[in-house]
Specification:
The structure holds two protein chains of two kinds. Chain A is an alpha+beta fold. Chain A is built from 24 helices and 21 strands. The N and C termini of chain A lie far apart (about 70 Å). Chain B has a five-stranded mixed sheet with strand order 3-2-1-4-5, sandwiched between helices. Chain B starts with a helix and ends with a helix. The chains are: A alpha+beta, B alpha/beta.
């Protein structure tokens, strides 16, 4: 051992506390440490700037905080101990884009560019770290690339993959004239449960499955020479190969199918079965949805509600992303709610109520902890007394609310439920109420706006909800001051990023030393998306669709919007995981996370996600300077 | 030790040692007027058998070079000197060099020659120079018969001169390390302390530069002035 190895060993030890060095081989770390110099930068001093020319040095922060800023951009980046820069510039052998300045006294480990490139060749984890982070060099969005860690970990699981990549073999088909006997023989030979009926040009006409045998063949005593086109289910559901697996899962859940055809330009290229999608799961999406559809009483629905939660856990354990998961949970919860309403008002004047979902349910962003947020728009026919209609609706609403409670959707503590006369209104009353809030613009109105303006029809005729949405968008368009108030209100909620420590945590209260992932985490994104959507007159109620649609209208850089969405979904995923842990330990569900419980990498991504929230807020402020 | 016994000691060195010593002597002295960006300084910390400068002996030398204003991690040095008599347990607990290591260290003369090879003629830097310089000088006299008179710079005076507002509150190395939030991976280990002190020197250089001091000589003048000031106050 050379005599000066102690310093190298101490440096290796220090480096290996941070990603990506924690995954690198000791020999490579020693190789790195032997080539490092340490530089010092006093507070405020420039470490690296675009005008310094092509990047010569790879910096790893030993101690202190470096702030990266890009000219003409509100977003900035704070780098802490163990973080590195400027990777993109070094990889592409050009000047840095950002200005890097010492925010405190800073000591940096410094590696010459040539050694940086040698290390890339030497160490696969280091290479992966540098290139993954900057897979999108054009977008140059460090935030977004950090979110790539996320997709890297979810790539293996099926719901993110395209249907094209899931189809394993050529689909087995037969022509429409094939007799039943021959069709069944093909199915038995091939060991398949379904067969697609196609025309000569491979255009799918229908599908026939073994499940159809009982109802269509055995019981009716159908002769075996019947042509298959008389027995198949026509117009099967088809999706393009580029569609994601979760879209197929959603389609199955919505329609109760067990198979989805993969169709490219009207030609059949494959069949995806429910088994393909959830081969590892005990509970399938379609089992649950068909159980809900055929449920005749509360106890069956309660079982289905439990199954939905179990499905959520299984999918979370498989690493299904937050967007798909919350959408799937919301879709199934929608089905359940619809069935509850259907059963409860089997003998009532069904056609006059439009059941509304508010809050997270309205945004299709339900997690495992979901209480009720709902209301009713009822129709008043000419000559009717609205109060009489309301009274009738309220009786029904109370039954529905209580049934939903029994299914595990607790009654809303804020009384935002259809059984509350305040939220059981005719269309005109809703309009008048919304108008009062918008005109008043007081704190209560702003709070209400954040819940009720995310409404979405869930049951009954959708026309009243559409009309209310259109009316609201028009009304608010002429009420810019209210939007401005909403914006100011949203900007009060600053992401809990600390300057000295990583995060600002709650010091006291019921949950000391935690971050509230709901209030401080996802709410800034939700609030901003709502303001964008209201201002642009969008019909979307979900945060991600709202951000995407707003981005298209305002021509916001897609990489930037992608960064916001990734950050939002990352925080949602953390919330879901937290809920899962709490459920496993029998604790009440909250969104209070102790940042120390996160892995170093998750901490960094969370930090980055909060920076994204700041960037979104800065953009919001920019667009609404009126 | 008088010049005669020094000469005697020198005369008893083996031929190879004398040759190495001569080669070191032949090196030109460092130009103390070279700018920071073009100079090599060696930051030193030592461990001893105790705090009595007249009686205690040198146990270890740790050194880290600051070249052109940066620390080069590979340009560092650590050596343990062999002790005939192992230091007391209390002392071992401070620097962590156990009896076995003390006995198995390099023979003193050879260890000091290794240090000279590493040092060259670079000017030295330490925190509380008198301690380090006295022990090193004493060792050189005893084991090599050499009067070691290389220039030293004392950060314990330079730092309060540059940051007078902290001159009263910050006295020890730990105070200043805390001030700049410099971590120390193993306090009272000669190399770790030298490494931490070298990081202090990195912070000193730009501060000195902002006062138009750009070379070692300028820092020495600053140190001298501060010594007068601390006497006067």
């Amino acid at each position: 051992m050379p005599i000066d190895a102690a310093l190298i060993a101490a440096t290796v030890d220090h480096l290996s506390r941070h990603a990506p060095f924690d995954r690198m081989a000791q020999t490579h770390l020693a190789w790195l440490a032997e080539r490092l110099k340490i530089g010092y930068y006093g507070k405020g001093e420039a470490v690296l700037a675009p005008e310094h020319g092509a990047a010569q040095t790879f910096y790893i922060i030993k101690q202190g905080i470096v702030r990266g800023e890009r000219e003409g951009e509100a977003a900035w980046l704070e780098l802490h101990e163990g973080e590195c820069f400027p990777i993109g510039a070094l990889l592409s052998r050009r000047a840095a884009i950002s200005h890097f300045r010492a925010e405190t006294d800073v000591f940096c480990y410094e590696l010459p560019a040539a050694d940086f490139h040698s290390l890339l060749d030497l160490s696969p984890p280091f290479h992966a770290f540098c290139t993954l982070r900057l897979a999108d060099l054009l977008a140059q969005s460090q935030r977004q690339t950090q979110a790539r860690y996320l997709s890297a970990s979810t790539e293996q699981q099926s719901l993110e993959s395209s249907l094209g990549s899931l189809t394993r073999r050529d689909p087995i088909t037969c022509s429409p004239d094939t007799p039943l006997r021959q069709t069944l023989e093909i199915m038995r030979e091939q060991g398949i449960g379904s067969i697609v009926v196609t025309q000569a040009d491979a255009q799918p006409l229908g599908i026939f499955t073994v499940r159809d045998l009982i109802g269509r063949v055995i019981l009716p005593n159908t002769p075996l020479d019947t042509p298959i086109h008389a027995l198949m289910s026509p117009q099967p559901l088809g999706l393009p190969p580029s569609a994601h697996a979760f879209e197929a899962a959603l389609a199955m859940a919505k329609h109760g199918f067990r198979h989805v055809l993969v169709v490219d330009d009207n030609r059949l290229v494959g069949v995806i079965s429910e088994k393909d999608l959830f081969s590892l799961q005990r509970i399938g999406v379609t089992q649950i949805s068909s159980a809900i559809r055929t449920a005749n009483g509360l106890s069956q629905l309660q079982q289905a509600a439990q199954d939905i939660r179990q499905l959520g856990h299984n999918m979370l354990a498989q690493g299904v992303g937050a967007e798909q998961l919350t959408l799937l949970l919301s879709t199934l919860n929608d089905l359940l709610t619809q069935r509850v309403i259907e059963l409860e008002c089997a003998d009532s004047a069904l056609d006059r109520i439009c059941w509304l979902a508010f809050g997270s349910e309205g945004r299709l962003e339900q997690t495992l902890a979901t209480d009720q947020d709902n209301g009713i728009i009822f129709e008043v026919h000419a000559g009717e007394d609205p109060e009489a209609v309301r009274a009738e609706c309220l009786v029904l609403a109370e039954r529905i609310n209580r049934a939903l409670d029994a299914c595990g959707f607790p009654l809303c503590r804020g009384q935002i439920m259809a059984m509350n006369p305040k939220w059981c209104l005719s269309l005109d009353e809703w309009k008048a109420l919304f108008a009062r809030w918008i005109d008043a613009g007081d704190p209560e109105a702003l709070l209400n706006a954040s819940i009720f303006f995310d409404f979405r029809p869930l049951y009954g005729p959708t026309q009243p909800a559409r009309e209310l949405r259109n009316w609201l968008n028009r009304y608010i368009h002429d009420q810019r001051p209210f939007l401005k108030l909403m914006m100011q209100n949203a900007l009060y909620n600053t992401p809990p990023l600390g300057l000295v420590r990583d995060f600002v945590i709650d010091s006291g209260g019921k949950h000391p030393n935690t971050i509230d992932l709901k209030v401080n985490g996802i709410t800034p994104f939700i609030d901003a998306a709502r303001i964008f959507a209201l201002s642009a007159g969008l019909s979307e109620s979900g945060t991600v669709p709202r951000l995407r649609a707003a981005a298209a209208i305002w021509k916001i850089d897609t990489a930037k919007v992608g960064g916001w969405i990734s950050a939002f979904l990352f925080i949602q995923t953390l919330r879901l995981k937290l809920h899962q842990e709490q459920l496993a330990q029998g604790l009440p569900l909250t969104s209070h996370l102790d940042p120390n419980s996160l892995s170093a990498l998750d901490r960094r991504i969370l930090k980055e996600s909060f920076r994204q929230a700041k960037s979104l807020q800065a953009t919001l402020k920019n667009y609404f300077q009126f | 030790m008088n010049p005669l016994s020094r000469w005697l000691r020198h005369a008893t060195l083996d031929a190879e040692s004398r040759q190495r010593l001569a080669a070191w002597r032949a090196q030109p002295n460092a130009n103390r007027a070279s700018p920071f960006s073009d100079a090599r300084y060696v930051v030193v910390d030592v461990e001893s058998t105790g705090l009595d400068l007249t009686r205690d002996r040198l146990v270890a030398i740790g050194a880290v070079a600051v070249c052109e204003g940066k620390i080069k991690l590979s340009d560092s040095f650590e050596i343990i000197l062999r002790q005939e008599q192992v230091s007391s347990t209390d002392n071992i607990l401070i620097h962590g060099i156990g009896g076995e290591s003390q006995r198995s260290g390099l023979p003193q003369a050879q260890a000091l020659l290794e240090f000279l090879d590493y040092l060259g003629k670079s000017p030295l830097v330490a925190f509380h120079v008198s301690f380090d310089a006295t022990l090193i000088r004493h060792a050189f006299q005893t084991y090599l018969g050499v009067d070691f008179r290389q220039p030293w710079l004392d950060l314990a005076y330079v730092l309060p001169a540059l940051k007078p507002e902290f001159s009263r509150s910050h006295k020890s190395l730990d105070h200043w390390l805390g001030h700049f939030r410099i971590g120390n991976y193993a306090r009272h280990n000669a190399l770790a302390d030298a490494f931490a002190t070298a990081q202090l020197l990195l912070a000193v250089l730009p501060m000195a530069q902002s006062r138009h001091i750009s070379d070692y000589r300028g820092l020495q003048s600053l140190e001298k002035a501060q010594r007068w000031l601390s006497w006067a106050s």
